[in-house]
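Provenance and format

Records in this collection were gathered into a single text stream. Each protein contributes a sequence line and a token line. The two records reproduced below are adjacent in the stream.
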Amino acid sequence: MLAIENLSVHYGYVHALRGVSLRVKPGSIVALLGANGAGKSTTLRAISRQVQPKEGAIQFAGESLLQQSASDVVKKGIIHCPENRRIFPKFTVEENLQIGAYTRRDEMVKADFEKVFRYFPRLKERRSQIAGTLSGGEQQMLAIGRSLMAKPQLLLLDEPSLGLAPNIVRDIFGIIKQINDEGTAILLVEQNAHKALEISDYAYVLENGRIELEGSSDQLKQSEQIKRLYLGG
């Protein structure tokens, strides 16, 4: 579904990604793990065309994305749910969700509102509330819900557990798994390696802009290096 080959990205003199290659198969969850500054978010920004790679290839369903605009990528079904939520704080919950569907002209938008509210009942309760007054967990739910309103084939999720209480993290990851079970492929950037490996099928570990380790999530859970660096082993 998604194929990245030898991707290199620079921010001025900073070499953020160094020859990154990865795959996301249809219907899978792929986790991208690593410390702060490893290049995880940059990888997602390159896919969603927010940064231009210096080298490499990005293909989605066999088609190159490198000449596509960010809006073109959205229309192809690649939806980026960014770190720190990035909701519209002065708009209502419902207005934020409507913005998520701005490219759509099909008749299923209303049904997808109800689908989002099924995933996140609290958003339905607060549909008329100003988004900036929601709790952190509710804002993360809204960010994911807004992304789902764009009807993604591939959802790029950046740090969905960041700053949330453990019980909210548990709920969010349960919903991410449910979204995937209903057919949406997910590329998940996450520092909570326990949770990421628990729900993903395959995982890559980024260090200093390079893929240093990859394998099935079950395999990586048994890796002594992963246990030492990320799982507290």
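Adjacent record:
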Amino acid sequence: MKSVLFAVFFVASASAVPTFIRTETLSPDEKIVGGNEIDIKEVPWQVSLQYIGVHMCGGSIISTDYVVTAAHCTYGINRNLMTIRFATSYLEYKCNVVEITSIHQHPDFDPQLGDYDISLLHVASPFRLSKHVAIIGLPSSTTSWPPGTSALVSGWGKITENGWSPLYLRSVTVQIISESSCKEAYGQSITSRMLCAGADDGGKGPCQGDSGGPLVIDNVLAGIVSWAKGCGREGYPGVYSNVPALRDYIKKITGI
């Protein structure tokens, strides 16, 4: 079962990696590298998107009825085999699971380039807010952050590029990187729907298993973990879906 699950997930996720990166060992499901364990009460909007009960991606609660994640996390996946686990830091906690009634994957999502990498998931039962469950704030479509701004990324992904995935939620602080600097690393693959963040000397960022998770600035969802070359490699920042640039789509689907 594990090998079948890996094959299904790998095909779905690898298709979202920009073609110039496909020779790397990367899949876009990044993990937290260089971070520390964090309690769900500190990031109560964080959820785990699961396939047949096994973690595959992260996500963020944006209303009592919707979760946002990356489109490559839902690309080619049967909705009926996906669930959302919430309100826990521990990945194998068996409670707090909700089904998904509909997936709204951005119609312009490009699995070759990872552009428009966003999906909105409507849940079967509304979230009941508590200290463990909260709605993350959304930016306006005109919001931007200057290079050097600190942001928090969290998830259950691998802690090193070729390492193991933890059972306990982790996070790390990275800094926003200018579009021009990001294009120096990745060229014209970077579009206005993408936001880059990392550390100047590497060693920090998401990795496999973190895809779809939140990049948060001052309790506002700035980005969605999308892809990178490796995990926390120096000179190659993490690439995130730019939430302000996709804000109109979120409003169109959810009304918020």
